[in-house]
Amino acid sequence: MLVWCVCYVVHIVKRFVAVVAMACLSSSRLCARVQDKLLCQFGHKVRKQTVFVKLKPPGPSPLRIFGKTCQRVSTCGPTCGTGGINAAATSGLVRRMASSLQSTSTGSLPDYGTQIVDPYRLLEDDLNGIYEDIRSELERNTNQPELNTIATYYFDGQGKALRPMVAILMARAVNYHVYGENSALLPSQRQVAMISEMIHSASLIHDDVIDQSDFRRGKPSVNVLWNHKKVAMAGDFILAVASMMIARLRSDDVTLVLSQVVTDLVQGEFMQLGSKETENERFAHYLTKTYRKTASLIANSVKAVALLSGADESTSELAFQYGRNLGLSFQLVDDLLDFVSSAHAMGKPTAADLKLGLATAPVLFACEKYPELNPMIMRRFQEPGDVQKAYELVHKSRGLEQTRFLARKHGAEAARLAADLADSPYQKGLVVTTDLVLNRIK
């Protein structure tokens, strides 16, 4: 007998909602209307369009999605088979394209017959112990206990592990693409996954010093617990150890690719300190900064593992573009969540970007309807009431919808690129990852 559970959206935040709960459902692909049990996961409502989500009973062991225990998830629209990306105008400026959007699509996890690929379960053995290995690497390279404590503070296994997961997933997908089903993950490719997480965490430590953050991942940030000089040096130490690991890979091409990440991170931080006078300049500035601060690390990490596999230039470029689009999508969703998620769900204060004087995509889109935001952006929301007023105007505008749409365009492009690799569970996992990024709530 088929057992049906469906989700219903109950929480609306100015045209955009994210609701999370749990339920169970049979493996059938058909959609169902509301019956007795209404608990669900990943429900969204945008402009009266409801997406119904169905869940399968968990397997022998719980799934891990972004570090959380979940049940197996697939989705479909109000009528079966709907969902995906709105095929709106694909030419012209990104801003104009997103501004002309008439409706947004909520998308869905891809369905591969009766099997839903969960990247974290697929890579469970590869990811197992990765934080322990990073901590061991850091500990081996210092005899200063306090330095080691600060440097390993964020490697507690509580992060999403998105970057190492994507790097290993791409490594296995490309290895399969080049060598077939008997291919194996190379130790050097797993090292790149570790390096990517180390560079990311070093950047978080430096961000905490610069931004004077109080919380990170639901706990006090490093700059609250230790003085700023020690924290800054701990970030430098992590980068230094990561650089040693890059050198041990003995690949000039990979060294150049991963070194570019650090260059981009520093440039991205400098760009974040400035504002541009006109709307078009500001948006281009924002997208370039977003690539350098977030997407470059993912893009160059997956390119590095492709190079280590011996893939040709076109396959390595495909990997890079997949990572670039996934990274941009990830940051756009992050900027969106800063306006719609609770501080408890995010593990850090919401509206944090506004308080730091940063104008992200939702604000820049909102400027089109409310030009009074422009002077606020120029003064970096420093006058009394600026943050609250900007927050309200963003919710009154279509800035959140437009940001979501742009994130989905980049997610759709990443999925399209992944589909060009040889068919394998890892290639499917790359496609599913784009949806996990788009539908995350923290």
Helix content percent band: 55-70%
Helices and strands, in order, run as EEEEEEHHHHHHHEEHHHHHHHHHHHH
Strand order of the largest sheet: 1-2
Got a strand count? Answer: 8
Shape: globular
Class inferred from helices and paired strands: mainly alpha
Using only C-alpha atoms, the radius of gyration works out to 22 Å
Question: Can you describe what's shown?
Answer:
There is one protein chain. With 442 residues, the protein is mainly alpha-helical. It has 19 helices and eight strands. The strands form four sheets. It has a two-stranded antiparallel sheet. Strands 3-6 form a two-stranded antiparallel ribbon. A two-stranded antiparallel ribbon has the order 4-5. A hairpin with a 2-residue loop joins strand 1 (45-46) and strand 2.
Kindly summarize this structure in a few lines.
The chain has helices at residues 94-99, 119-122, 124-127, 130-140, 145-151, 162-179, 187-211, 222-225, 228-248, 252-272, 279-308, 313-340, 343-346, 352-355, 361-366, 373-378, 386-396, 399-418, 425-438, and strands spanning 45-46, 49-50, 52-56, 63-65, 68-70, 72-76, 215-216, 219-220. The protein is mainly α and 442 residues long.
